[in-house]
Write a structure and sequence with these properties.
121 residues, alpha+beta, 4-stranded antiparallel sheet
């Protein structure tokens, strides 16, 4: 593998289930809790991370939400998880069911081939 390659971004799928404490809050209380207790910790302790939320509770009883994170590298991902564990997000508002972490098209990077993917036209 060529030595001039940069490290691939890391993608993490954090599968979570809401807790009764979270569900007992109003929507306004949830937004306030998240924006004052979780987001500031992430912003203060991480770098190079981006996220998106997906609701899944209408399709799954085991996982109610999937929080998708993209991190510039493994160190940024590690800092993110360390930060999240210091907030009420982790095991108070949500139970972390599973962490699925990968590198998009990692095999293509390893073997220096074009990724096999489908594209919408």
């Amino acid at each position: 593998m060529p030595t001039d390659r940069t490290e691939a971004p890391v993608t993490a799928f954090i599968l979570v289930k809401t807790t009764p404490e979270w569900l007992a809050m109003t929507v306004e209380e949830r937004i306030h809790a998240f924006s004052t207790q979780v987001v500031p910790v992430i912003e203060a302790r991480t770098r190079g991370v981006r996220s998106r939320f997906y609701d899944t509770e209408f399709y799954s009883a085991r996982v109610t939400d999937i929080w998708v994170w993209e991190a510039d590298d493994h160190d940024a991902y590690r800092l993110l998880i360390d930060a999240l564990r210091e907030t009420p997000f982790w095991d108070r508002y949500f139970i972390v069911v599973d962490l699925l972490v990968g590198i998009e098209n990692g095999y293509a990077r390893t073997y220096d081939v074009e990724p096999v993917a489908t594209l919408a036209t």
